[in-house]
Amino acid sequence: MMVGPVLVTTATAKPGDIGVYLEAIGTVTPVYTDSITAQVTGHITAVRYREGQFVHKGDPLIDLDARPYEAQLEQAQGTLEHDQQLLAEAQMDLERYKQAWSRNGIPRQTLEDQEKVVLQDQGTVKYDQGSVHYYQVQIEYCHIISPINGRVGLRLVDPGNLAIADGTTTLVVITQTQPITVIFTLAEDSLEEVLAQMDQGKKLPVEAWDRQMQKKLGTGLLGTVDNQIDTTTGTVRLRATFDNQDNAFFPNQFVNARLRVKTLQNQILIPSSAVQHNGDAAFVYLIQNGQAKMANVKTGVSDAGMIAVEGLHAGDEVANSSFEKLQDGTKVAISKMPLPAAPSETGAP
Fold first, then answer.
1. Phi, psi of 195, deg, nearest 5
2. pLDDT greater than 70 at residue 348
3. Do residues 30 and 149 lie in contact, with contact meaning Cβ atoms separated by under 8 Å?
4. Is residue 256 within 8 Å of 25, Cβ to Cβ?
5. CA–CA distance from 329 to each of 5, 287, 292, 335 (Å)?
6. How many angstroms separate the CA atoms of 120 and 101, rounded?
7. Among candidates 221, 234, 224, which has minimal Cα distance to 186?
8. Which of 140, 209, 143, 181 is nearest to 33 (CA)?
9. CA 237 and chain centroid, separation
10. What is the mean pLDDT of the chain?
11. Sheet arrangement for strand 143-145
12. CA dist 271 → 102, 268, 311 (Å)
């Protein structure tokens, strides 16, 4: 009985570039995380942010009752005005003493004593000015504003709560999410290759993928390498920065980081699925004159379903399906449509 040709799909070997990647588990880490506490003691009169709101630097967040500090500011301003008038009076007396001394109307000691009185009053005025500035700062502390651009967390306090100066109670937490960073670790054996690229001024791209490696969250740039190796794990930490304009990254999220350390150019690329293995040997079924010919290849770097190989030429056509039916010299017919997967041994016939 004659057997017809095996129906296969094919792929064409093409020249191209392929990246060399180092992969690691990473953690999304904000550039800044601000846990804001109270600098003055007072009752909370207003919470001005919404949970999860994106705020800008300078936006109001929380107001405290500033009336006690406003009253103290008025007292300090009154003391300042009083002492400024005393200084003015002492300066007027000094001018009179200078004129009297020039006419030998008073002893030198009286003039010198008055000069010291003026200096003392100047010091008092300066002290009063410091008190005024201090209470102005206290009033500013009563109106808490955002120190950064970022995202506000869940509300931690309510109007009517008492905020304690220099206490441990956090009033609000803000995380900067644009840009955002990913911290990941690499084995110390890979460090030399990375540093060599950075020393040449190259900006190494880093891809971040979700936990299942199904969705790319974004592409950023390697920013820095930590200054020491963790001796317990033999790894070093690296930080990459991402714009995160689409908010695909969330603080403390686990991601898969792929650092591209270099790009191999002018490689012969075929789908990784076209490469078969017989022990340590790799081979493909080269399609020539309607037949499948086994051709040994040497595999190299693989990425995104493609692999670099040696032993083929650009334009070579290789089988990419029906491997269980192929042998060296098998006649084939090329299908233009993807073929269904072969049933498993336990599956339905």
1. -65, -35
2. no
3. no
4. yes
5. 11, 9, 5, 18
6. 21
7. 234
8. 181
9. 14
10. 90
11. 143-145, 60-64, 42-47, 162-163
12. 105, 10, 15
Which domains does the chain show, CATH number per domain?
6-19+265-334 (2.40.420.20), 25-31+178-261 (2.40.30.170), 32-65+142-175 (2.40.50.100), 73-127 (1.10.287)
pLDDT tens, position by position, 252-274: 999 999 999 888 888 889 998 98
Residues 124-159 pLDDT 10s: 999 999 999 999 999 999 999 999 999 999 999 999
Kindly report the backbone phi and psi dihedral angles of residue 175, in degrees, each rounded to the nearest multiple of 5, phi listed first. Answer: -120, 135
| Separation between Cα atoms, residue 73 and residue 135, nearest integer Å | 5
Contact 170, 156 (CB under 8 A): yes
Tokens found for residue 148: 């950064």
Query: What pLDDT is stored for residue 344 in this prediction?
Result: 42
What is the DSSP-derived secondary structure letter of residue 337? S
> 3-state DSSP call for residue 272?
helix
Residue with tokens 């992969």: 23
| Bridge partners, residue 276, by sequence | 283
Joined together, the tokens standing for residue 80 give: 């300042």
Q: Are 172 and 153 contacting, i.e. CB atoms less than 8 angstroms apart?
A: yes
Q: How far apart are CA 182 and CA 238, in angstroms?
A: 8
> Are 17 and 264 spatial neighbours (Cβ–Cβ below 8 Å)?
yes
Residues 6+ apart with CB under 8 A from 153: 51, 52, 172, 173, 174, 175
The total number of residues shown for the chain amounts to 349
pLDDT of residue 175: 95
Averaged pLDDT, 53-67: 96
Sign, Cα dihedral of 82, 84, 88, 93? positive
Alpha helices in the chain (DSSP H): 67-102, 108-141, 191-199
Residue 180 tokens, joined: 């955002």
